[in-house]
Amino acid sequence: MIKRLLIAFWLIGHIALAQDAKTVTGVIRDDAGFELPGASVLVKGTLTGTATNFEGQFVLEGVSPDDVLVISYIGMVSQEILVGDKDYFEVTLGADASDLEEVVVIGYGTSKSKDLTSPIATISAEEITSMSASSAMGAVQGKVAGVTIVNSGVPGEGPQVSIRGVGSIQNSNPLYVVDGMFLDDINFLSPNDIETMSVLKDASAAAIYGVRAANGVVLITTKGGSKNRDMQVAYDGYYGVQSVTQRLDMANSEQYATLMRAAGNEQYVDAAIARWGGTNGIPAVSTDWYDELIRSSAPIQNHNLSLNGGNEKSAYAFSLGYFGQDGIMNSTGYYDRLNLRGKVDYDVSSKLKVGFSTILTKEKRMTDDGSAWFQAYVNNPMYAVYDDNLADGESFPRPYGNPHNLGYDTYYTNPVARAYYHSDNQSDITRFMPNIYAELRPFDSQDIVFRSAMNMDFRYGAVTAYVPEYKVGNTQQVLNSLSKTNNWNYDYVWDNTVTWRNSWGDHNLTSMGGLSVREENFRWLNGTAQGVTNKDYLNSGIADTRTSDDGGTRFRGMSVFARFSYDYQHKYLLSLTMRADGSSKYQQKWGYFPSLGAGWVVSQEDFASGLTSAKIDHLKVRASWGLLGNDRVPANSAFGSIAGGDLGSSGIFGGSLVPGMINNRIFTDLEWELVDEKNIGIETKMFDYRLNVEADYYNRETRNMVILTTLPMGNGNLLQNAGSVRNSGVEVMVNWSDKIGKDFHYSIGGNITTIKNRVTDLSGEPYLQTGSAEFPQRSYVGGALYSFYGWKTDGVYQTQAEIDADPIARANGLKPGDFRYVDTNGDGVIDDNDRVLLGDPNPDFTYGINMAVGYKGFTLAATFQGVHGVTIFNRRRADINKHGANNVDANLANSVWTGPGSTNSTPSAEGLYNPWNTGRLNDFFLEDGSYFRIQNVRLSYDIPTSVMNKFGLGASQVYLNADRPYTFFSSNGFTPEVPGGIDESVYPIPAIFSLGLRLNF
Amino acid sequence: MKPITKYIALFMGLILLSSCNDWLDIVQEGEVPSDEIDYTDSSLMYGPVSGVYATTRERLAQWEMWPLLNIRGDEVTKGGGSESDQGEYLYLEEFNYNQAKGFWALNNTWVSLYKIVFATHDNQELIENFREHLVSEEQLALADQYDAEIIFHRALAYYFISNLWGNAPIINPDDITYGIPYQPYRNSVESLRAYIYEELDFCIEHLPETQNDRKGAVTKYAAMALKAKVALMESDYNMVASLTDDIIEKAGLYLYDDYYNLFKVPGKLAPESLYELQFTDFDTGDGQQVYGGAWFQHQGPRNNPAPISGWGFMLLRPEFLDFMKGRNEEVRWDVAVLESGATTPAGDAIEIFEPNYMDIKAHYNGKAYLPKDQMTPGRNDYGSNNNIRVLRYADVLLMNAEAKLQIGGDVSTPFNEVRRRAGMDPISGITLDDILDERRAELSVEWGNRFFDLVRTGKAASVLDGFETGKHEYLPIPLFQEDLNPNLAGPIKDE
């Protein structure tokens, strides 16, 4: 009621003031004297306003002398000028040292940075393109506190992203919202097309996305044009080479032979020497399979051409991009991407604005065979890639050497042959993402905007995998095989919002309400055939061998939401959101997600004037709470289902199949997975905005955590609401940047995030068991999620005397060089009751450091990034447990116990093959996954405009980039960045060295 | 304000839409809810039965179960490329059970057998749904028969569970509340066997005497043979005698003459077969096949070219070979033993394999051997198109002889019938040791028979090195299962 009255008064006032109208003109420049096109000139407290033209000039009618003009431009300090009796204004806007006026994209709207009540990290276009990565998220690593990124070396594959710790076993990737479309990843998007990226880290900001927001939200706005601007054409591109700078060294033939003799496997060594030669019991051939499998260098390149501009009524942007990356495996893997994008906004009238944008992507990918990496680790080094002395028909079509003629079984196969014959794995994805919107401001007097936007995402994927006929020893593909899969996706999000910005006196209120409907459809169709005569067509295969299969998924969601953002004098800030979400994935259809945020800008207070003398320019404290949902769990049917008719579910009777059915009665009624998050933060800017500090404490508790559990008694696996887990910690970001004199500038900054992961509830169960049967992981209340669970070693028995003195050693027939285990319960026996938690794969803290120095046009910038306190499980080494003829890494071969006093941490060569030492999960297989990485070093030079102008070109830059040139780490693998903390068969992540150019025409 | 009205209409439309939850209530794609099967169509009713055969075929043929069943006897050692190749099996051979508690094969075997149990309960529920729509006596009797076919497989799984673990849980489907982990306690081995009897009695009552439509499907006599095997473990010789007498008298089974081919393609579903895991390549040289896979391959000759090639596991022990030689077994030698460095009677040359952990060259399990010339041209997998024999008439005859020896009766007829087929002269004055030796020669490396024979007759401790009576009869509960269900380590609870 009061509000209505206030509105009425405001309207009357407005009409009264409009009486002595006149026309004013002017020009707006920046502090270098250049005219600013597209600057905004607005009569304060009204919607009356205009923008400057190409020459920075403006004309505004109907202005009264009492009006105040608000003149603003992105990145400049706004000015307010009383009109008075002047008719012509020359305004110079200064650059804004603070980012307080920066407009930040928030869910379904925007806000000024200074009015935010939650921590939202924004990443600029420049930062996103600072690294040579196919996906924009790769470049974010180490730059934003609270965002953990695990990269992949596979061409075109995006990183795993998690915001503020791991909440549930299900997909921890955040929600990406690209111009309104909900997406699971943005790997298809060219980093050059991104204008801004906002990471909504806490619940108060993310809750407006309700059920999709539990893992955090990344909002992305693609580049658009600007009104009243001449067409600008720009080229941005680089060419680089990828190279694996840090390799895992494997044991050579001599070391391997020693191990095999100790293992009682000397027959392999003897066979190798008999076949391939050797002296003094050392095989002549010593193949480093990783050397054979890794290319010395592979190219990566990116080219992007964009043009944008606009007139009084419209703005446009178009771009064309190409990205290409070859795999580092000595095979055929590559990733190619072509992006085509257009965005047009048009003012139909002063009230109606419409727009259309579209992204067209064509991705082509050839996937290397990942298991070749694992084969390179386990295969013995004693034979060569090619063999000249093969028996007839032993290997064809290529004369690859094989381990089988040395007596190895088919668990082992020539890694190079494996990579070669299984390299024809092609996928093509064509993606079309149109977006259309209309925005209506029906009232002149009120800033009320209705907006309806339809976002669609069509994907069509064609996957072809072909394996030729081949034989490598006993590994044989008798008939060639072809598999073709077509995928079809159709997703849409239809958003309808109304936003009302309202101010009275010192009060500002923005209200937003909306309704959103979405649907995701996915269908696939697969066919296979063998013995094809044409590898493009299934119908050229043998009729009996042809099979077909299909499937799909479908989800629907519907949401109603509202947000109220209020401030008093930009001093006291309050934000409220509410979202109701309906989802077809749950039996409980509707969920409700509220949030609350409050902020206090202390530095705005009168009593805080003392702060200024203490060099504190800005100080804000804020707190927030919210509930988020997670529906990124596999849809749950809540009813029994039946598989039937196929070979696996049908009985055979005298050679004939009788169609069968298998009833699956295992299901649960899942409840919504919820995240309850609290955040307290402080932001300050000091020393003339040169020092920025932002610190947040967060506490997010995932409730009804949906976890795929292994059921007792072998009754399968089941998704269950298994309890709660809490991630809490502190995020601190500090940045200092300054200029010395006119030509020298520098900046240094750092960020750190601590993560404490604790299980808080397991619905009464004593623990949660996950992982494999042999290498289990356990989660206890009060402990971290997914801790490795096994035996703790206590050194190695050094002498026979030590064995004789220990009843445990005697009882188990141990020898010097075997592990001594900690008898944790002190019962004199080592058994399953002695198992303890041995560490978990969740990091204790992650950090990043970035620095830059610039002199005139030169800038040297570097980013460092690290993770601390991760335990990773060396699954590759542990494979020796099942496969005693495996090769091992050189580090292990060099560190085996060789006699009393030689080592107290590794068993003897013989002991490596005793299940007592290696047939169980113990801390010997667990390694410290901490690392510190030189993430990026970049040297750039801005070519003086005066030089470029001679060639008819604008501002331009050349740069040299080194991505991930070196990492400090101690684990025995290619990289400590392994998903889930399990290092099994990881594609090496190459370093990238590139040369780039930015040109403005 | 025309656009405004449009918007209002639009919003109204949406609100109407949101009021109906039906829009969100959709079935996930790619799944057939169990209540959408047409249960009134009784011709579909065999589907759930056929599904249980498929599950049993897949689970009982898991290779890792096979050494677990057989290596504790005195016939085979695990074999493989080296001593450390799946080295945990050696712990079992040496009766060092404690160290094998975490062994993956132990867990997989447990899981496989209980999977069969769960599958039978799940699919019986489907039969129940059909039953509601059945009217005629004849149809209801058919439903009973189908139930009995399913239940037979459950009894078979429990037979192995009770022999391997002794005290183990009986799954009560009524106790399973999905969403709450089902954590049963163990039952005693006695109550477990009583439960198997009960189940098999239902089977014997409702199963047909012959299965003409579906070859190799279980009959009344298969159920009786299985029940006799359980009774033998309990030393209930009266029951063994009456069951085996019935089979001998009424089933019309006879021993297959061509003993060499009994375990090969011509012997599939031979007249002496009571139950087999059935596989097929559909008589085509390419395309899909239902194949016993690693069950054959792990027993196949190492270092030998395909198709007669495998991993070289399950090597016959010297004492077993000496035993066979000492008896002058020729017919059964050729079937039981696949010698490396020799050519088989069927003409396949087998590359020599001299494992460094044995004093003799490798002798593989001949009952997994399939000659190349019996394979469909185009197929290249060891054992392709062959079945795995589970219950056969020779065992019934030997059980009958043993029971008669214990309770009085004609021992010699059934006993010498088995010998005659194997080309051995009949003997008289038959003792229990004669019968156990005959079983060892006839039933070598078949489903753990030898170890179970030694255990049930109390001879294990004297024959097997390291075996202690009262301690090593049963395998330890897999560690992973105890972790998932701590009640397995708790007290035995019989209802």
Automatic annotation (TrEMBL), chain A:
<feature type="domain" description="TonB-dependent receptor plug">
    <location>
        <begin position="114"/>
        <end position="217"/>
    </location>
</feature>
<comment type="similarity">
    <text>Belongs to the TonB-dependent receptor family.</text>
</comment>
<dbReference type="InterPro" id="IPR008969">
    <property type="entry name" value="CarboxyPept-like_regulatory"/>
</dbReference>
<feature type="signal peptide">
    <location>
        <begin position="1"/>
        <end position="18"/>
    </location>
</feature>
<dbReference type="InterPro" id="IPR023997">
    <property type="entry name" value="TonB-dep_OMP_SusC/RagA_CS"/>
</dbReference>
<dbReference type="InterPro" id="IPR036942">
    <property type="entry name" value="Beta-barrel_TonB_sf"/>
</dbReference>
<keyword id="KW-0812">Transmembrane</keyword>
<dbReference type="GO" id="GO:0009279">
    <property type="term" value="C:cell outer membrane"/>
</dbReference>
<dbReference type="InterPro" id="IPR023996">
    <property type="entry name" value="TonB-dep_OMP_SusC/RagA"/>
</dbReference>
<keyword id="KW-0998">Cell outer membrane</keyword>
<keyword id="KW-1134">Transmembrane beta strand</keyword>
<dbReference type="Pfam" id="PF13715">
    <property type="entry name" value="CarbopepD_reg_2"/>
</dbReference>
<dbReference type="InterPro" id="IPR039426">
    <property type="entry name" value="TonB-dep_rcpt-like"/>
</dbReference>
<keyword id="KW-0675">Receptor</keyword>
<protein>
    <submittedName>
        <fullName>TonB-dependent receptor</fullName>
    </submittedName>
</protein>
<dbReference type="InterPro" id="IPR037066">
    <property type="entry name" value="Plug_dom_sf"/>
</dbReference>
<keyword id="KW-0732">Signal</keyword>
<keyword id="KW-0813">Transport</keyword>
<dbReference type="InterPro" id="IPR012910">
    <property type="entry name" value="Plug_dom"/>
</dbReference>
<dbReference type="Pfam" id="PF07715">
    <property type="entry name" value="Plug"/>
</dbReference>
<keyword id="KW-0472">Membrane</keyword>
From TrEMBL, chain B:
<comment type="similarity">
    <text>Belongs to the SusD family.</text>
</comment>
<protein>
    <submittedName>
        <fullName>RagB/SusD family nutrient uptake outer membrane protein</fullName>
    </submittedName>
</protein>
<keyword id="KW-0732">Signal</keyword>
<feature type="domain" description="RagB/SusD">
    <location>
        <begin position="369"/>
        <end position="472"/>
    </location>
</feature>
<feature type="signal peptide">
    <location>
        <begin position="1"/>
        <end position="24"/>
    </location>
</feature>
<dbReference type="GO" id="GO:0009279">
    <property type="term" value="C:cell outer membrane"/>
</dbReference>
<feature type="domain" description="SusD-like N-terminal">
    <location>
        <begin position="106"/>
        <end position="232"/>
    </location>
</feature>
<keyword id="KW-0998">Cell outer membrane</keyword>
<dbReference type="InterPro" id="IPR012944">
    <property type="entry name" value="SusD_RagB_dom"/>
</dbReference>
<dbReference type="Pfam" id="PF14322">
    <property type="entry name" value="SusD-like_3"/>
</dbReference>
<dbReference type="InterPro" id="IPR033985">
    <property type="entry name" value="SusD-like_N"/>
</dbReference>
<keyword id="KW-0472">Membrane</keyword>
<dbReference type="InterPro" id="IPR011990">
    <property type="entry name" value="TPR-like_helical_dom_sf"/>
</dbReference>
<dbReference type="Pfam" id="PF07980">
    <property type="entry name" value="SusD_RagB"/>
</dbReference>
